[in-house]
Design a protein that fits this description.
CATH class of the largest domain in chain A: Mainly Alpha
Shape of chain A: extended
Radius of gyration of chain A: 32 Å
CATH superfamily of the largest domain in chain B: Periplasmic binding protein-like II
Number of domains of chain B: 2
CATH topology of the largest domain in chain B: D-Maltodextrin-Binding Protein, domain 2
Radius of gyration of chain B: 23 Å
CATH architecture of the largest domain in chain A: Orthogonal Bundle
CATH architecture of the largest domain in chain B: 3-Layer(aba) Sandwich
Largest sheet of chain B: 9 strands, mixed
Oligomer: heterodimer
Structural class of chain A: mainly alpha
Number of strands of chain B: 13
Number of domains of chain A: 3
Structural class of chain B: alpha/beta
Order of helices and strands of chain B: HEHEHEHEEHEEHEHHHEHEHEEHEHHH
Order of helices and strands of chain A: HEHHHHHEHHEHHHHHHHEHH
CATH topology of the largest domain in chain A: MetI-like fold
Number of strands of chain A: 4
Helix content of chain A: 55-70%
Strand content of chain A: 5-15%
Largest sheet of chain A: 3 strands, antiparallel
Chain lengths: 434, 347
């Protein structure tokens, strides 16, 4: 250590290290900064997406109602003098009664103006009147005040999506309708309410009457079929492959294939469904049964992979201890390994189901992308699912569907968040560390 | 755990069993054109709400896809009605007849295809010849009749026609799978193409080449395929005021505050002009009924009557508010009475 040359060398090395150190520290700070930037960017994009959807979609959850005074004219509604529900339902001209009363109270003359006035109300208005009269037959022949749905254009005007300051030619709500609207507003005849219909009815071509309930039921039935098929099959396949199957070329091949299947584009499963379930087995088109079967095929690899990973995570000591105490291999699996692996398996299943819930492409091929008004009553009734409903509304010309599209996206996202959150909860609650 | 698995298996079998029972169908099934879809769905919804029948299921498969399913055969697995934004082709009709299908044809009205731009700029006046020269893959050199065909050199609208503004050609339109695109190619592009005598003459000599030249759209970026969603095209026009867009009349009707329809051959795309068949880029809309299914599937005949009804397709009908353009008087009368008798289509 006394050799001067040696100490010079060490001095040089120290210098080198010092320089190198600050360079390495700078590199580390840069690297961290990249990470922070990436996360900030990702959060900003997510916020932008969620913000746009929320800003466009929140207005779908409320809608405009108008109070009208209607004379339930016996001549139009109950021409034979009978006010039993059947006559009112089949014979009653409630649209006529509504038009007559409106024309009288707003003193309108001329066909075109009459049409403009009636166009301010939803076609649902006459059915509201009808229901009211059927429930209260003694009101026939009397004047009533009743709240009815406004048409989509008036609804959009209330929400500010149709602007008043545009020239009349480019505006869906005409000047004369604006005058009536202002008069109604001044008389407190206009109010906005929570849109219960959105959560209780099926699809409609009138934006103010369109609801997502039909699609929610369709999604539920489809997911039910998917779960019933994919979960037991996936579980059995995973348990056999992980616990019982011999390790040989064949099982290796199966494993590779399952991993590949998980990456197959979903439309391929739709084509398979069309060829096998519809054309060969002749199952009904547009049915949640077939949709569920197709999505089950798509979800199977996800479930198998997740289940195998969870089974693998159960330590061998558990199996060996059980075997050592004389349990059979089936007992080892069903009494010890499977219960311990279940949280992981369930998490994988829920995540697979969440993916299936958001899928449209395979359903296109089997006819679930369709206009369906009736709420499906079972897995063989025609139905659509939520993402398909969003797609169909996004494609509709009527302006009112813009907010409905985003509203439906919010509902779908809410379902996905709940599903994913329950997966996280299950994992946290039952997770065991070894 | 064993119990759960057994239960699940039983459930799956029960579901499969339920499928077998659903052989008879009590709901009319409609497929076909996405252009007729907005009208057919409105009729179906009203029909379902006002009659004792279930609401028919309407699927948008495209005109060609619909006729393929429709002509595939008889029975509950096949659709009862197909919508089309063009007339049934002879080959399709023959396939139908070969499979024992009796077809009734109904024309419901017209649809205009508009070329539109953002209201932030001036309305544009085009001829079909301008449209062809701006968008064709091959054009006659120097726009001279009879000159040899060269790859389209026009960069701006001013290159096409000195009266047009000096902005780059950029047209957003539907992809080739769309019926709107077929109709645009046939009516607007080919219409403009035929104004060149030399190209028109080619039709008799080499029909395939004629179609290739007259309906071929350039692929150098001036024509942008904007997807099947017409709402998207409207939004993109708002963002890019120099671009033009091609879409159906009902979208112009609904978005009159954002976009304006260009004048084509001196005629603006208005309701009246399309109805009077003055506007050159318009087509007829149809639907076809499988007569063999009438009486087998409840509600077909009644649905047809609800559709072929003045309340729906008449001048003051509810479909008019949805952007349908009504048939001329005499034609409408004929088709409305056909709705009651369902005459056989012969070709």
């Amino acid at each position: 250590m006394t050799d001067p040359a040696d100490s010079v060398l060490i001095e040089g090395q120290k210098e080198k290290v010092r320089q190198g150190l600050s360079r390495r520290l700078r590199a580390e700070r840069r690297f961290r900064a990249y990470g922070v930037v990436a996360i900030v960017l990702a959060i900003l994009m997510l916020l932008f997406l969620a913000g746009t959807i929320a800003a466009n979609g929140y207005s779908a959850f409320y809608q405009t109602w108008i109070k009208v005074d209607v004379f339930l004219d016996e001549e139009l509604i109950a021409p034979d003098g009978k006010t039993d529900p059947q006559t009112l339902r089949e014979e009653g001209d409630f649209r006529g009664a509504l038009i007559e009363s409106l024309v009288a109270s707003y003193r309108v003359r001329g066909r075109e103006k009459e049409n403009r006035l009636i166009a301010m109300f939803s076609t649902d208005a006459e059915r509201t009147l009808q229901r009211h009269a059927i429930a209260n037959p003694r009101l026939v022949g009397k004047n009533i005040s009743i709240w009815v749905k406004a048409s989509s254009d008036i609804d959009q005007l209330t929400k500010g999506a149709i602007r008043r300051d545009l020239p009349e030619s480019g505006r869906k709500v005409k000047d004369v309708q604006l005058v009536w609207y202002d008069r109604m507003a001044a008389e407190n005849r206009i109010e906005t309410r929570f849109n219960t219909g959105f959560f209780s009815t099926g699809d409609s071509r009138e934006p103010e009457q369109a609801g997502i309930w039909g699609a929610i039921v369709g999604s539920f039935l489809t997911m039910l079929v998917t779960l019933i098929l994919a979960f037991p099959v996936g579980l059995a396949a995973a348990v056999y492959l992980e616990e019982f199957a011999p390790k040989n070329r064949l099982t290796d091949l199966i494993e590779v294939n399952i991993n590949n299947l998980a990456a197959v584009p979903s439309i391929v499963f739709g084509l398979l469904g069309l060829a096998v379930f519809l054309n060969f087995f002749e199952l009904p088109r547009s049915a949640p049964l077939v949709g569920g079967m197709v999505l089950a095929l798509m979800t199977l690899p996800t479930i198998i992979i997740a289940a195998r990973a969870s089974l693998l995570a159960v330590p061998p000591s558990v199996r060996e201890a059980a075997l050592g105490l004389g349990a059979s291999r089936v007992q080892v699996v069903s009494h010890h390994v499977l219960p311990l692996a279940m949280p992981g398996i369930l998490t994988g299943t829920i995540i697979g189901m969440a993916r299936a819930l958001g899928e449209t492409a395979p359903l296109l091929m089997i006819g679930m992308v369709a206009f369906i008004v009736d709420i499906p009553g079972g897995p063989t009734d025609a139905s659509t699912v939520m993402p398909v409903q969003i797609y169909l509304w996004a494609d509709s010309p009527e302006r009112g569907f813009v907010e409905k599209t985003s509203g439906a996206v919010i509902v779908l996202l809410a379902f996905l968040v709940v599903m994913n959150a329950s997966a996280v909860y299950l994992r946290k609650k039952f997770e065991r560390r070894w | 755990m064993k119990k759960t698995i057994t239960l699940a298996t039983v459930g799956a079998l029960a579901l499969a069993g339920a499928a077998g029972q659903a052989a008879a169908r009590d709901q009319v099934r409609i497929v076909g054109s996405s252009t007729v879809y907005p009208f057919a769905t409105v009729v179906a919804e009203r029909f379902g709400k006002s009659s004792k029948f279930k609401t028919p299921v309407v699927e948008a498969t495209g005109s060609g896809g619909g006729l393929k399913l429709f002509c595939a055969g008889l029975g509950v697995k096949t659709p009862d009605i197909t919508n089309a934004s063009r007339r049934i082709k002879k080959s399709e009709y023959e396939r139908c007849t070969k499979n024992g299908i009796k077809v009734a044809e109904f024309k419901i009205g017209y649809d205009g295809i508009v070329v539109a731009n953002s209201k932030k700029k001036k309305r544009i006046e085009l001829s079909r010849r301008d449209i062809f020269l701006a968008l064709a893959k091959l054009v006659p050199e120097g726009h001279k009749d009879g000159a040899r065909l060269v790859p389209n050199p026009n960069r701006t609208w001013k290159d096409v026609n000195p009266a047009l503004p000096n902005v780059a050609i950029r047209v957003l339109g539907p992809p080739p799978t769309s019926g709107t695109r077929d109709a645009f190619n046939e009516l607007a592009m080919e219409g403009g193409c035929k104004t060149f005598e030399s190209l028109k003459a080619m039709k008799k000599v080499d029909k395939r080449r004629y179609k290739g030249v007259c309906r071929g759209i350039r692929e150098d970026g001036a024509w942008v395929e904007a997807g099947e969603n017409d709402n998207l095209i409207v939004q993109k026009l708002e963002a890019d005021p120099n671009a033009l867009g091609v879409f159906g009349f009902s979208f112009l009707d609904q978005n009159g505050d954002k976009v304006q329809g260009s004048i084509v051959d001196g005629v603006p795309p208005t309701f009246e002009n399309i109805s009077a068949q003055k506007y050159p880029v318009s087509r007829s809309l149809f639907f076809y009924v499988k007569k063999n299914h009438v009486g087998q599937i409840p509600g077909i005949q009644e649905y047809v009557r609800a559709f072929m009804n003045r309340k729906a397709i008449g001048k003051r009908g509810y479909l008019i508010g949805k952007g349908l353009i009504p048939l001329p008087r005499a034609e409408m009368r004929d088709f409305i009475s056909a709705g009651k008798s369902l005459p056989d289509l012969t070709m």
